[in-house]
Amino acid sequence: MIPPAPTMAVLWAQYGPYHFARAGALARLMAPSKVHAIELASRTRDYEWDRAKTGLNLITICPDAVAERIPFFTVFFRTRRQFARLGIQACFLPSYFPKQSLAALLAAKSLGIRAIMMNETHAGTARASGLGAWGKRGLIGLFDAALVGGAPQKRYFASIGLPEGKIFTGYDAVDNDHFAQRAKEVRGRAAELRTKHALPGHYFLSLGRFIAKKNLGALVRAYRQFLQASQVKQTHLVLVGSGEEEGRLRALCSELRLPIYDKTPVEIEKRKSKNEKEIAGVHFYGFRQIDENPLFYGLADAFILPSIYEEWGLVVNEAMASGLPVIVSQTAGCAEDLLEMGQPVSTHADEAESPRPNLPAQLNHLIRSNGFVFDPASSIELSSIMLSLESLPAMRGEMARESSRIVEKFSCSNFAENALEAAKVAMGRKPGPLRRDLDNEPVVATPMKDEAAKTSGVSPMR
Predict the structure, then answer these.
(1) Half-sphere exposure of residue 454: CA atoms within 13 angstroms, side-chain side
(2) pLDDT tens for residues 130-161?
(3) How far is residue 139's CA from residue 21's CA, in Å, rounded to a whole number?
(4) pLDDT tens across 280-304, in order?
(5) Which CATH number is 62's domain given?
(6) Are 116 and 90 in contact (CB under 8 A)?
(7) SS3 22
């Protein structure tokens, strides 16, 4: 007899667009009554996402609270009460840190619920040592399985004691179809949208928070070197985001004598009557909601993630789903899985017959089928990559096609399938089918009751 599917909870500190997409995919794979979306709070400190349309019924443990400020025992008792009320048998939890995550984990274990850890940490981002590392091993042992980002994350957790057979990959996923379709629509209206949003004809794009680990100062320096060496000097640098480093970045642009363009919505509105030709420089577009990202991806030449370290880097998933070549720091957690070894292959006979200009020798070991990896400490490497991509539009097209192919391996459907496999292992069951739909209900996500819900953050425990 096929065993019934367990009743599961998927808990994050606060649900944002990425979380809704993943939990929704799991609900469609299973059944709405078997998957419960739970968040600790309606706000977090770091992000200001709009989540008016969610596609899921959502349970908020502490409405109107800030997730990071909820007391430990408040999380423990309220989460425990919800788990018991819903009859949860297996729960997906965002690790064991900070204290709110640990409280949710202990609440689950106190009820005998099987716990699956969701985590992006790898050896390059692990910070615990000594007693901290010893304690971490003990906490890891409380989990019955894990769903992690990719190969580096799997190696790391296997190295600290979690059995490899209990670790599944595919945690880091975005709604690939959404980004692909929206980027296609943007390209179909390219001239109109470039004018409306004052976007350059050619640009490299970086999108994310302006914080120290993102290494945006190194990107600006590399862009200065790129412009000095470029023969055409037509490719701009577009930065989308905001944060504590913005003042320093603007000062650096001034120091390097790079033109600075303010492109916040207010500034763009002021510029509508102007139609001047802009000299290649750095464009600051400010913070944008996730629904606006395809506009920037769709019209870019390539995407750059220059982080000193990065647990994963979901913006790379977004850029690849949007059909872009990607230039990614070799220390980013996604680099090994999302940038496949090898060189891009042309799909057009005429391009295949005409030899591509040789890349500089120093880039041969950095090229990948859909972009480049680079040392985040080397502005020379990054500027050389930018020069090569500017001068080889055919190669950019080949890499873009490869990006679209590769990212399908990291879809929300893949997240759901691997989450289900992790749940099976956590429940002590052998691989095989589970009965998804015990109540003969349609396997679709139901609308969230409060469609007008707003938020000011996405969980840092994503």
Answers:
(1) 3
(2) 777 788 888 999 999 999 999 999 999 999 99
(3) 28
(4) 999 999 999 889 999 999 999 999 9
(5) 3.40.50.2000
(6) yes
(7) helix
